[in-house]
Every structure is written in C-alpha cells, then in structure tokens.
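Teaching soon. Got one?

===
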Amino acid sequence: MIELSPVFDTTTRVPLYIQLYEYLKTEIINKNIAKGSKLPSIRALSKHLGISKNTVEGAYQQLLAEGYIESKPRVGFIVKELEEPLVPSLSETQQHSPVPPAEQSMRYDFRYGHIDTTHFPMKAWRKCMNEALEMEPEKILWYGERKGDFDLRREIKNYLYQARGILCSPEQIIIGSGIQQLTSLICQLFDSKTCAIAMENPSYDGIRSVFLNHHFQVLPISLEEDGLNIEELETSNANVVYVTPSHQLPLGMVLPIGKRQKLLKWAAKNSAWIIEDDYDSEFRYESKPIPALKALDMQNRVIYLGTFSKVLTPSIRVSYMVLPNCLLERFSQIFYNYNQPVSTIIQKTLYLFMKYGYFERHIRKMRHTYAKKQQTLITAIREYFGDNATVIGEKAGLHLLMNLKNYNNVDELVIKAEKAGIKVYSAAKYWFGKSGTPPSYVLLGFGGMNEKDIIDGVRLLKKVWLSNK
C-alpha cells in the first residue's frame, strides 16, 4: 500500500473527507504520489486510517470530479497525469489572466452575461427611483425587512404565478444580492457533514464554488440529450441536487416533463431537496416560456432561485428565492441576526417598476430584441462556417455554444481570436475536471453586442480560425 499518513484535525469543522481530499490532492500535485499509481481501495484505506468507508469514498469522489484520479474497472483508482501546473507561477497567472491587459482594445466581445444597455428603460427607472426617494425616511433609510421589502416580494409573487406558474406567498420569498449569495444562505440550511450535493455535469462553475467553499461534497451527474441522467442521480448518495431545468447551463437543453416528474419523485422518496436555478427563463425563442419545475412541486421539495440580472440589469444586485414552508422556520432561526443586503431604495424602485407595468413591457421588448440578435448570430455562423461548425443550445437564453469540427484545442481558438481583437470563451470551465470536456466548445454570448458587430465578429472568426484549413 502507498504510504499515506494524513494528520486529521478533529477540532475543526472541516469534514474528514475534505481533509483527506486536500491531503491526497497535495500529495499528487507535489508528485509524492506518482502518475499511474494505484490508490488503496476504499475498504483498505478506511481500515488503514481508522475512518469510515464513506469518508474515503467522499474524498475519492472529489478527486475523480476534479480530474486528479480515474476509476478503472477491475483495477481501481489510478492517479492521472497532470498536463499543466495546477498552481501557476505569478508570470503564468498574469499571462493567462481572465482579464488580460489587451482586453480594453478588444473590438468584439462575445461575453456571456452582458446585456443590451441601449434598451434599458432609464427614463422609467429614474421616474420610479425619484418616487421611491419621496417615500417616508423610515421606508428607505434603514436596512429594511430581513427577507426583503414586502411590497417587492408581493410583486414577485404575482409575477411568478403569471409567468412561471408558481403559486407561493410573499412570506416564502427571500430577497438577496445575487444567486451566489442566496445559494450561500441555502448551504447554511443544510449540514455539510451529512449532505452531498449533486450537480449537472457540465454546470455553472460559480455555484459549484459556493458549494465547495461551504465544504459540501459535490457529485457530478452526467447529462443525456434531454438533460439530467435521473438513473445516475438515483444511484448516487446525493440528498440535494442543483439543476437548471428550463435552460441547462451551458448546453441549453430543456428538462422534459417526464424527467421533471422523476426528479420530483426522487426528492420526495429520499426526503431530498432540489435547487432550481431559473436564471434566464424569460428569454425563450421557439415557444412560450415553459412552467418552472417549482410549479409542479406538490411535496414542497424545490427551492427556487430567480434573478433580475439578465432580464433587467446585474448592477441593481437583486435576486430572490422561494423557500418551501417547512424551511422557513429554520431560515428564521439561523439568520435572525442578518440584515437585508439589498438597498431599500433599490428594492422600492424595483417594486414601483413592476407595479406600474414597466417590467412586463421591458421583458416583451427584450425578448424580441434578443431573439433577433440570436438569429443574427446563428445565421452568421452558418453562412461563414457552413459544415465546419455546429450550433448548440439555440432555443433560449443569451448565449450559444459553437462546436468547430476537427479542432481539439479550444484554448488555441481563444488565443487566436484574442490576437485578432475578438474575445470568445472556452466552455471547459463548466465541466468537472478535464475528463469528458468537449475540446472545441466555444461559448458565444450575444446580449451586449449589436447585430452588425455580431456579423463582423463571426466573419473575422472564420478568417482567423479557418484560414489555414
């Protein structure tokens, strides 16, 4: 057996499986455990260290998810070769910074998450803000209600029923300053020692970081053509699952009703929880927005997350969640001493913006605007790339995935584009580790670009990427 002698700290709240995972990861990075080495079996290491098999399995699963080891049938767990340093030097960090010095000169930026600022209803927003500022000081100059402004929560309740089919009360709605902040609160409702959280693979890396920072075991669940592999979820030891059923991030598929029902049945049977991130459901182009998973939740097992970042603007930092009634008391007990993080003035402004119908009109306008941009991008890709590329995830949202055929190095594509003044993005970060990551998936966001720049940018990408083909 490989000599493994981790020192566990029993005085800390960090779970043992995380401590073991960190120890093994460090040993692999430092090459104290060589590539190709076979790790001890779960049973053997459990007996050697005097810890439970679940603890060892949790550590191994995290190493598998992040690509440090692989599981070979009838062989066991094998340490994989690391193709590049996992802790880059300062010069490498600067060289590969997500925000390179040259970004200011980028002519075309296909960044996901950008919105069309030219269509923001500034006049209506300013009118609502001015009216909010005329309210009594007690309503706008204090922290406000811990769950958020009641008037705003009532408007959100009405909107969710009309647009997403969700029936809830204002008391179930919690206002927060972003999906990640709200997810952090959700994490504190559960025990990281007893809860394992399943996530779609690929999935939103920003939320994955939140779970890991709260020391939860995160289990990757593979995707099928129609979304989450329910059978794989059922055989996992997860008791919480994070999903994007209305528009899977980043692949774009919609979870069909059959799988939604199976997912809800799994949650009810196992007393498990579903976290539904409905991040951009307003922008569906081939049909009307479909009802949320929460709308089907008869057993109160779904925690629903929504945001105003995509449909309005991320700068106001307003998101919300709908908690099942059975979690409200626990929420109040844990966060009784927390203040509301969102400005009361912004909340009152948004309340008035929704009350007067500006919000609904803005959604209709932007759905039409983004649909035209998306079609412009798809048409340009087909015109300039033809059979050399395929488009993935075109039914909804503010981004597409583009798969350039016969290319196996997405980083090379990104670098070539950047040298030509075009910013595109690798989709690799959404996958757990490097195993199974499609090498040539490029993420193209179009929300913040005008149609002319979309066409010109794609035309230039063709010149840059296919000039030597």
Residues 358-385 form the longest helix (28 residues). The chain is about 40% helix and 15% strand.
